[in-house]
Amino acid sequence: MDKPRKKPPALLQVSPVPLYTQIKEILRDRILDGTYQAHQQMPSESELISTFGVSRITVRQALGDLQKEGLIFKIHGKGTYVSKPKAFQNVAELQGFGEAMSSMGYETFSRVVSLKGLAAGAAVGAKLGVGPNEEVVELRRVRYLNRAPISFDVTYVSKAIGERLAKEDLAHRDVFLILENDYGYALGGAELQIESMLADEYLARQLQVEEGAPVLRIERLTMTAEGRPIDFEYLYYRGDAFQYRMRIERSHV
User: Which domains, from first to last, does the chain contain?
Assistant: First the structure.
């Protein structure tokens, strides 16, 4: 059952913020708080004109901006609908999930599944430059975009860093920003390995997809500016809700 539509706040007629921007922000809030859900039809242009008491041009400017942000899509002859949340990150820029998505106006948060110390093992130890029996901290989180699960992240850091992270608000803050802003580490670059796989029972439950659904698996090793490994992750993204973006240039010899 659809949620009842909230009465929108009155527009400020005397304001440096244009009317179409005010309407856009009101509609965006309704999308992010679930009043308008994924694939639900938005109010028609005529309904919005009546609701806000503005011109058709103003309404179209507001809807056009929401469409550019990827929050809505139009079907010719049928109307405007709410887009299913889809995360994306720029390969050319090292960013945390929340950092990348919140800059686009999306609501993000994480559910911490577990945080515990364990032996690094051969694979993680080799990435972080420690022995297989050395203790590291493993952090497991489900990441949400507009309140829908998008990725399941498994992060490994040193014991010293992990013990500090245990005291942080990991539901609302990116590890990258904590490392840089709170702990004083300058992050440099990252090595990525991307492959596709099918969700097993555990991943399917965390991501709320069917077992066997396509998943994008990313290994990411992040280094400090001095080139020392500091953060190693396995990131599992829903195949229907994530994309990487990049720009490449042709080399002219």
Answer: 19-82 (1.10.10.10), 87-245 (3.40.1410.10)
